[in-house]
Every structure is written in C-alpha cells, then in structure tokens.
Write a structure and sequence with these properties.
By secondary structure, the chain is an alpha+beta fold. It is about 20% helix and about 40% strand. It is built from five helices and eight strands, in the order H-E-E-E-E-H-E-E-H-H-E-H-E. Strands 1, 2, 3, 4, 5, 6, 7 and 8 form an eight-stranded antiparallel sheet that branches. The radius of gyration is 17 Å and the shape is globular. The two termini are about 25 Å apart.
Amino acid sequence: MTLQLTPQQVWEVLKKELFAVLGMVTAKGEARTVGIVYTVHAGKIYIATGVDSWKARHVQGNPHVSLTIPIAKRIPLLPWIKIPAATITFSGMAKVLEPQKVGSEVLYALLRGLSEDEERMADMCIIEIEPVGDFITYGVGIPLMQMRDTNKARGRVPVAIENI
C-alpha cells in the first residue's frame, strides 16, 4: 500500500528545496542533464541562466524537459550513515523568457538580490517550467525505515495547482 500524498504536499516539499537535476534533449536528440538552482512560484519552476548557455539553447530547441529534485535523508545523530535521497520527478514544458517577463518576486528569489545588477541581467534569461502530468515520488513523506519497502516509498501524484 502506497502513501497517498496530495499535490499540495508535493508542492510544499518543492518550495523547501532549491537544487534539482534538469533533463533536456540536444538538437542531435541526445539526452543531457545539468544541476540547477530553482525557485517555485504560482505552480511553475524558474531557473536563471545565461542567454547563450546550452541550457537555454536546448530548451529553445525542444521544450520537453524533466526535473528531478533529490531530498536528502539523514539519521539524527548518525549523519555519517549514507541514506538514499528521496526524490520528486516530473515532466514539464519549458520556455525561455526575458528576466523582465517573470516579475520582481521571482527574480529576487532566484538571484538573491542581484537583479539590480543591470550588466548581469543583460546576459541572463529565465527558464520557466510548467509541470505536466504527475509527480513521481520516492520516499517523500514517509519515515526512513519505510523507504526499504518500494511499495510504501513510491507514489504518483497529479500536478494539480489549485491553492498553490
């Protein structure tokens, strides 16, 4: 029996994290992944990157992406014991935007106040990802010992965005 997470619970976990792995496809059809820092706003994920970066080029060429968010698990008082991370994975549709198009709240969250640097902003774009389908989870919202049972550890939650 699997834990029944709600979309709101998954979104709350996403808001607390800041690192993810973005999966894209190159113009040659090759899979590529990259670690990114993100923020969540109004049911979408935002990433800052350079205008000429390969992330921006790949997303412009193919907007179908995936995102995997690892969530560190630790045993209190025994941090040297290695525990697999919990994860949230989903597919999404991405688009490349000019920084001015996303609003000051998103820019401030992404750039931690560096959005006033006009020279830096001139070379930057924002990738906006809208999740589609379901969140695929592993180990989210369950105790560590239950992660050993894959039936209890895994979940599938619709990406509903009401009340986000």
